[in-house]
Design a protein that fits this description.
5-stranded mixed β-sheet; Rossmann fold; 7-stranded mixed β-sheet; about 425 residues; globular; alpha/beta
Length: about 425
């Protein structure tokens, strides 16, 4: 993310804009502009070489009016408190717009996970859990995998929490492996939900999805399953994906004019989403600059990586052919860039609507953990399709009713639901 863009300030600006439109009173604004609780811990870890290192860890709990805090745990070398704060706000709105009974939270550890062995990652993850376990729980705060973390790490977290609390508690995290209380369908849920939103948008815009083209930024879990579902469900063509190369310390776009094969690319991608350039090139992929995805002539643009990727400085490089921007990442577009997108009449599916498939499926996982009864993958994805379709159409309906931008409409739906719960609970 660009150094000049503060993600928390962006999240607050987006909130303030809609608070003005809804004429929210000052007490409610003061409550919602800032998180309810914030934690900063220092985690000592004995490394494999015997050295003791100290890592900074964060957990931010924004709002739990609708239910327990919910949000991922990132292992990221450039993590900041403000990034985690911003993501916790967006999680509150994401859960609310999806209409699941959860609130917003987020966590992060300042570390490059690619520089750690599996044993070092486990020690770091368990150390984080030990310092904060009393503030987690199925009815308190439920983390999940995020950038730099995965299902195995959630299993370690669940095990550490269970040992400390004295009882087996699978519901303390979601995104677990299927063999340890995880839900079928969870791995592809976010990407699947992105494509459901794109499908619903195309219906509203009168676009036949067959043969449409897309460019995707990123090639982590969300981007991978967005690509596969776009091709398989919509019969569209994905022209490129991109990834960060931790060896070269730069990003690249992997392009094929007639469409990429995401399954092949997944077969030459490591656990952190880095594609093998040599093997890709040998199999006919053009390797372009990391920013090339943004300016390709495609129908759908899908930022699925980091915050702050579409800015005032680069928004005008977006092709005139683009009809839809689907924000699979959190906070990929700045408020200044939003104004240009509006003027160009590009249909935008805002982040916390577009990517709420993951938290919706996490909610399904929690329900299955509580019931100790697990659903088939078809049942999970069918319920997810229904939930995502309803969420999209509730936001689209608000946009039409109030004649507002889709991002503003999503905030309106989400904020109204949270404020209603706060008032009913007597908080304001």
């Amino acid at each position: 993310m660009s150094k000049e863009i503060n993600p928390f300030e962006l999240a607050q600006k987006q909130f303030d804009r809609v608070a003005d439109m809804l004429d929210l009173d000052e007490e409610v604004r003061a409550f919602l502009r800032w998180p309810k609780k914030e934690f900063h811990v220092r985690i000592p870890v004995r490394m494999d070489n015997g050295e003791l290192k100290i890592f900074d860890g964060y957990r931010v709990q924004h709002n739990d009016a609708l239910g327990p805090h919910k949000g991922g745990l990132r292992f990221y070398q450039n993590e900041t408190f403000d990034t985690v704060r911003a993501l916790s706000l967006w999680m509150t709105w994401k859960c609310a717009v999806a209409n699941v009974p959860l609130g917003g939270g987020k966590g992060g550890v300042v570390v490059d996970p690619t520089a750690l062995s599996d044993r070092e990652k486990e020690r770091l993850l368990r150390g984080y859990a030990r310092l904060l376990w009393k503030d987690f729980g199925p009815r308190t705060d439920v983390p999940a995998p995020d950038m730099g973390s995965n299902a195995q790490m959630m299993c370690w977290f669940m095990d550490e929490y269970s040992q400390l609390s004295g009882q087996y508690t699978p519901g303390v995290v979601t995104g677990k492996p299927v063999g340890a209380g995880g839900s079928l369908g969870r791995t592809q849920a976010t990407g699947f939900g992105v494509v459901v939103c794109i499908r619903e948008a195309m219906k509203k815009l009168g676009i036949d999805s067959k043969g449409t083209t897309a460019a995707i930024q990123g090639f982590g879990n969300v981007a991978q399953y967005t690509a596969t579902n776009y091709i398989e469900k919509l019969k569209g063509i994905v022209k490129c994906v991109s990834c960060w190369d931790r060896i070269d310390k730069t990003s690249y776009t992997f392009y094929k004019a007639d469409g990429i094969d995401p399954h092949f690319l997944m077969s030459i991608t490591d656990q952190y989403g880095m594609i093998d350039k040599k093997l890709a090139s040998e199999n006919g992929y053009e390797i372009l600059s990391g920013d090339a995805w943004r300016s390709l002539d495609v129908d759908v643009l899908i930022p699925a990586a980091l915050e702050g990727q579409i800015t005032l400085d680069n928004v005008n490089t977006i092709s005139k052919q683009v009809k839809i921007i689907a924000e699979a990442a959190n906070g990929p577009t700045t408020t200044e860039a939003d104004e240009v997108i509006k003027k160009r009449n590009i249909f935008l599916i805002p982040d916390f609507l577009c990517n709420c498939g993951g938290v919706t499926c996490s909610y399904f996982e929690s329900v299955q953990n509580d019931a100790n009864f697990y659903w088939s993958e078809d049942e999970v994805l069918g319920k997810l399709d229904d939930k995502m379709s309803v969420a999209f159409n509730s936001v689209f309906g608000m946009a039409k009713e109030r004649n507002v931008y889709m991002r503003d409409a999503a905030y309106m739906v989400a904020i109204q639901r949270v404020v209603t719960a706060m008032k009913l609970r007597g908080w304001v």
